[in-house]
């Protein structure tokens, strides 16, 4: 039986790939990835010629069965996400759950690296020994409940947001938490990386004045 390696990849800056991750990507029989075009950019940058297979949130059970068959043949596989650590706001754990049901003794090896959550937490500027991570807010159904949970949390809350909804999310939070302190990271580790910090009114104004592009990660803390 082969081994499934869960590999964290850069969230923006390609230099953030670890030596161990690079070696494993080169040695694996296949790389399972969300978007083959995105992953091939990373692999090509490092001269990795390992073939890629698509695995994402819309993959069928046949894809999972094929992955199990490859492992059963003794092939070592590397699972990556488009950016960051698989299994965090990502369908990687669905595949792992399926594989463990089929083979509880399957060897699954995590290879740690970049993730937007600890990256933004490391520059928060306030106590982050305890925090709550909630992934992405729902687009419609459950959105109000999501932000109520943020407002009621006793520890800082981290969540992801897209450029299309970040202003809307901060506006909704301001209504529930007018005294909140927030840290917003945009395009972390990339060329135009920006960190906004301060009272929620101030940060909302800064984000509105700036170019709302790229991926965002938000920390919300009560004063």
UniProtKB/TrEMBL annotation:
The keyword Nucleus does not apply. It is found in: Cytoplasm. One of its GO terms (cellular component) is cytoplasm. Residues 3-202 form the Tetrapyrrole methylase domain. Pfam families: TP_methylase (PF00590). Catalyzes the 2'-O-methylation of the ribose of cytidine 1402 (C1402) in 16S rRNA. Belongs to the methyltransferase superfamily. RsmI family. This is Ribosomal RNA small subunit methyltransferase I.
